[in-house]
Structure formats: C-alpha cells, structure tokens
Amino acid sequence: MDFFNLSSPLPLQYRNAVVVIGNFDAVHRGHQMLLAQARAWATSLQTSLIVLTFEPHPRRLFRPDDLPFRVTPLAVKCERLREFGVDAVAVLPFDWDVAQQSAGDFMQLILRDALGARGIVVGHDFHFAHNRTGNVDMLRSCGFDVQAPALFIDERHGVISATRVRGLLQAGAIKEANDLLGWPWEIRGEVGHGDKRGRTIGYPTANVALGETIHPAYGVYATWVRVEGDEMWMKAATNIGIRPMFEVQIGLVEAYLLDFTGDLYGKTLHIRPVQKIRDEMKFASLDLLVAQIEQDCAAVRMILVENVC
Question: Partner of 304 at 20 to 30 A CA spacing, among 3, 133, 144, 209?
C-alpha cells in the first residue's frame, strides 16, 4: 500500500480512484464493511481504492488539551487499512486553514484538483468543511458520484463506533473491544530508557511511551509482545499506568518479557493486551512488590495458554 501527503501532488496512477473519506480511528468492523463496499465498487470500475484521512486527528486541533484518545495512531491505522484492501492512503494535513475551508473549496481543491476523485464513499451522516456545512446531498448536487451506505448495524454487536471501542479499552475490557474491532488491539512504540528499577528487583522491563495512543484502564495485563521485524510473540506481564509505587507522572507501558534475555533498547515493540489481571497497587515494601510480580507472572502463563496469539 502506498502513502501520500497531499501537501505534494498525488501520482497520476492514483487519480480517478474511488476515494473513501474519514478519520478511520480504530478501523473497526463498521469501517471494514464500508471499505468492503468501496473495494467492490473500485474493482467494478477497474480503478484504485484510496482512503483520504486527516492528520493530526481533527479532535487534536479543536481540543488540544484532551487526553490521548487514538485507538489507532497513523502507523497502526495504515497497517489495518492495507489489510482491508486499500491501495493508498492520502493524508490531508489538518490545520486551521483546512478547518476553516469552505465546502466549495474542499470539493474543488481537494476532491477535484488534488485527487481527481471518480467516486466518493462516505458514511450516510458525513459532514465536512467549516462548521460542517458540507454533506452528502451537496456532494451529489455538485456532480460527484457518491455512495453513502446507511449505518451498519451488526446483529451481534449493534452499532459499532470508535467511541464504543474507546470506552471498552478505558474500562480494561480488552476482549470486548477486540470483538468490535475484529482484530487484536495493540500498543506500539519504541523501547526507551527508564529508571531501571525493575533490574534491581530481578524484573527488568521494556518501557514504551503511550504517546497519542489511548490509555487503557491502568493495571497489570497478560500480554503478547513481538519485536518489530520478528515473527515470534513472547509472553509478558505488562504494567500500564503511572506506577503508584514510584509515582511516575506520565502513563507508561512496562513489559516484563517472560523467559527472555537481551537488549531491546531502540527497538519497536508490538504489545497486545489480552486480559487485565489486577489494578495498579502501592506496596509497603519492595519484598511485597516482588511477591506480587511473581503471582502476576504465574497468572500470565495460565491466561496465555488459553489465549494463543
């Protein structure tokens, strides 16, 4: 799959494509049904399928003080989109100039001039441009061939939305969130240097900043961990949170990889929470902390035997 920033011209091979517009945070089952419909249309027209998305997420521009909320930061989102049949992702840098753009300018400058869109696929309630003045009817009245499927309602899951997925993750309900996603949610990031306290008690951890990834419920999780570029998934007891024992101020992922020795600094980890074991706790002594970690590791082994990655 190709990736383009619309601050530069789109390659000619991707003009006249079917363009799906949206933020696509989570790339959940509802998104996947929309993409499948768009893929079928693009195939029937013998053209490419492009997703037009916005970075940073508009919410980050309008509400900069919000806590991290992304289920799928850009790299993860693009990987998911590729899995579901998208040929290219075109990113429109979202700033105040774009936010204040009129509906007419968005259609002319972005959809016609930059993309040369042959067909447009959006959700039925899609709005765009300044003050959300643009909508599906306006696109059609201006000559665009538009498909706007009705809201997808899954018989088993009901209405699926990124908001529902976020709520489940924030509650620590990983299995239920994964059920709505249709794929195992993961945290991804580079291993950095921490305070190395884990080494002093015999449990060295790989520390990964959450960045703009949504913070799931703080606590200890049974997780699968993979080093990017490797195929093997490893068992890990992973603390996600602020470590009340040591009063860390910023949410952090600390994965203790069972049965692993080696240097992970600077490497990118894929961390898949499977089940929350317990809440974060503050212990009266390091000995009590170590005893609890031993129990956590035993629990991880039991849980992951039944939840193979």
Answer: 209
Q: Name the burial class of residue 153, with classes exposed (0-12), middle (13-18) and buried (19+) by CB atoms within 10 angstroms of its CB.
A: exposed
CA pair distance 58, 131, nearest whole angstrom: 13
Q: Which structural domain, as residue segments, surrounds residue 285?
A: 186-305
CATH number of the domain enclosing 251:
2.40.30.30
Q: Write down the pLDDT at residue 281.
A: 87
- Residue 136 falls within a domain, yes or no? yes
Burial label for 214, CB within 10 Å (0-12, 13-18, 19+), is buried
Reported pTM: 0.92
User: At residue 151, does pLDDT exceed 80?
Assistant: no
CA 237-241-244 angle, to 5 degrees, is: 100
